[in-house]
Give the backbone structure.
Amino acid sequence: AQIGAAEQWRNPELSVDSVSGSEGKSETGVNLGIPIELGGKIDARRSVAKSGATRAEAALYASKSEVRSSV
């Protein structure tokens, strides 16, 4: 699950602002923010997630080995 999450792009942000002024005039502004990740950040997150999964798998095998040796 963490590997899949690490491979995803960040969500864009949308905001709308509305200001009412005098004499019944109003202004509305719309902002759209799309994050662009540079420098291999997605690959780096994927590598960290995969190494975490590998460590967890190694810990699982070590625990299984301990249980088997104690029985």
Q: What stands out?
A: The radius of gyration is 24 Å. The beta strands are 13-20, 26-33. Residues 5 and 46 are 9 Å apart (CA to CA).
